[in-house]
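Appendix B. One record, verbatim.
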Amino acid sequence: MIVRRIYSQLQALLGQYPAVALLGPRQVGKTTLALELAEGRDSIYLDLESDADRAKLQDPELYLSSHQDKLVILDEVQRLPGLFQNLRGLIDQGRRQGRKSGQFLLLGSASLELLRQSSETLAGRIAYTELTPFDASEAGANHLDALWVRGGFAESYLAGSDAQSLRWRRDFIRTYLERDIPQLGPRIPAETLRRFWTMLAHNQGSVLNAAALARGLGVDGKTVASYLDLMVDLLLVRRLQPWHGNLGKRMVKSPKVYVRDSGILHALVGMQDKEALLGHPVAGASWEGFVIENLLAVAGSDVEASFFRTSTGVELDLVLQWPSGRKWAVEIKRSLAPTLSRGFHSACEDVNPDAAFVVYPGSERFLLSSGVECISLNDSLAEIDRVN
């Protein structure tokens, strides 16, 4: 059993808020984690994709009020958007009766959709947190290559062979395209969305060029924007925004786009194992996206993430800024002997970070140049934990 880092955080939130929303893509382990939390308390679990469980909520207030002394776990809660108004009344009723926390645990597979439904009705009553696929701190330093190649979804990462892992990821992609996305409402041809997802994979870590994507799909720019919004909402794609500072320089204004799970990325471009991946042009961008997802998973939602790039090509792969104002500059290299360009040092002068790191696939930690440390992924995650 791999212990999820978010477990203690989720316990703490349930002790502070009447409702907690646990967001994450399908098959990431939300239900398993929720049921594990429920073992230590009186609880009830409802799967809102089940006809039988949805039937119980035909009169939500009547049913849920009869379980007001329990932790109610509502899985795939975005399937019943009208339920949030009922939850508000039940939460307020519970507060009047002295139950100020731990009433509802809401599990959702779509981030912005769930936020739109709950932000108005449950403001001040709900906390949000995200469960990501396994990260390097959970899998351990000895399994980093397997995590990178297969990705962090449990069924893929723990599969008996690379072939089985790839088969699971291809099934995952097909299920999302043919079943899950249509259930959320958008009527997008599955083959069109597959092509879009695959195009993003081949352009992993590139600055978004909506016009080029639109030409490749035979659609307009607004349609591409709606497709991208959907993939971001489903927590499958990350849109990394550019860093903005008053530098008097021309800055890149378009976001960079990443397929969030490295294993899904590799399935989309047809790479089964590490040997095939290392010979593929996407390998460097894949490692970059993998490192970014790991760093952001550990950093948490309070840390602002961006990239830095000027029109002249001066660039930093990642800038992390804490609410305290503390700032990191991060460069990501898929090389055991990384080197730094003049542009990196110029970018650091502009951003003025408190610390600068080069994250690479090795295990040793050393100074690469004055004020710049070369560091492994696991050590960088430990550094973030220390700062947090």
